[in-house]
Amino acid sequence: MENLVFLSLLFVVLLSPFSYANDILGFSSHPKFPKLQAEKMIRELNLFPKDAEPVNAVGHESPKSLVETRLRFPGIDYSDASVSVEDLGHHAGYYKIKHSSAARMFYLFFESRDSRKDPLVIWLTGGPGCSSELAVFYENGPFTIAKNLSLLWNEFGWDKVSNLLYVDQPIGTGFSYSSDKHDIRHNEEGVSNDLYDFLQAFFQEHPQFADNDFYITGESYAGHYIPAFAARVHRGNKAKEGIHIKLKGFAIGNGLTDPQIQYKAYTDYALDMGIIEKTDYDRINKVLPVCEMAIRLCGTDGTISCMASYFVCNTIFSSIMAIAGDTNYYDIRKKCEGSLCYDFSNMERFLNQKSVRDALGVGDIDFVSCSPTVYQAMLMDWMRNLEVGIPALLEDEVKLLVYAGEYDLICNWLGNSRWVHAMEWSGQKDFQASPEIPFEVRDSHAGLVKSYGPLTFLKVHDAGHMVPMDQPEASLEMLKRWMEGKLVEGKDESEEPEKLVAQM
């Protein structure tokens, strides 16, 4: 009966003039809407892959499960590093995915500029289907790319406080590839199993890091990847599978984790920030009941309702953007230049240089910055609620940090704050009753933080979707203090927190 009601409501939405539904859903003029939507998103980053194979497929094989090379990028003065060139451990490599037909996962590993005993931090970029090299060169990696394609040392790279690992995933993203289309993943089970297999191989190759504390981080669609991966590692540890991984925590930056709560926050955030008017708010919100029902059905039957929920719920966002015009939905303080919001094309130009490809050991593999194939393959996964697996991790004292730049619309802080507060776990009421405390960095008010036990929420000031790019110093300090259990200055978060009245 619920399915019948939902289909009836969907039919009404599609036939109505409301919120440009037919244009947005594209049923009449664009039968391949998901692919077009993916390509639109990627063009807006100026990263559309030219003539890329569907799975970034190539034909060469290696008998080893993991092939790694010592990395020295051309065009950078290594004497500027805080450690000697001999001690600087930069690596690039491929891992043959154990439970796949022919998949190879590419990664970059940068040992800490301070100490190899620092925690091991893995970073996952979202999309879905966008390469983690975006973060390496524009957010929190050791380098930034200058206009002349030379590399400069990043004063606030996360490798200053951690051993930093970036992975191109899911398969078909970045330099990761397969010669078999069956290796493309469609859900978090496949994604998290691949990442777990990768991590096991990594620790076999680098056993000296197996005893280091381990943290999972990332942003955007990684709000799906990260909880699933953390749960997979935790499950593997409990089952004594392979090498024990010292999982201490996971951090989600401006992520999509609980769509039902977060999509409902779009109009509230847009109204609060003056993007839409109250009449727009009332009109757009008429689609919310259909969106919410579709998401509920996706969580139970997991088939056509998951695709329908993607189409219907995104009319909410698209209707807001039809009013916002050329506003940059990753940072509403800015305007998109023409059809672009950010231009990361220097990264592609840099990585397509023969000297760079030789240094990475990738041969003639096509680099796919953001893959429409991966994006489209994950559509059934989009509206799934990944919050459901988090409480069990919190109960076992695995720490969670959810942080969000205040000027991001697409994965805004309001929606993230709401799902964190709504999450049911033993410390929920105490977390809700905890106060907001200023997050200070060098006497500057960098954000507001709320914490209880293993759970922390941080609203970052003067930042959009990519916090490490907009606030590099604050993001480095955030990571350092959080891993030390001292994100709230002067308070040891490992101690039982006081129960105070909520200010949020």
Automatic annotation (TrEMBL):
Keywords: Carboxypeptidase, Disulfide bond, Glycoprotein, Hydrolase, Protease, Secreted, Signal. Residues 1-21 form the signal peptide. The keyword Acetylation does not apply. Its main location: secreted. GO terms for cellular component: extracellular region; vacuole. It is an enzyme of class 3 (hydrolase). Its EC number is 3.4.16.-. GO terms for molecular function: serine-type carboxypeptidase activity. Pfam families: Peptidase_S10 (PF00450). One of its GO terms (biological process) is proteolysis. It is found in: Secreted. It comes from the Eukaryota. Probable carboxypeptidase. Belongs to the peptidase S10 family. This is Carboxypeptidase. The lineage of its organism: Eukaryota, Viridiplantae, Streptophyta, Embryophyta, Tracheophyta.
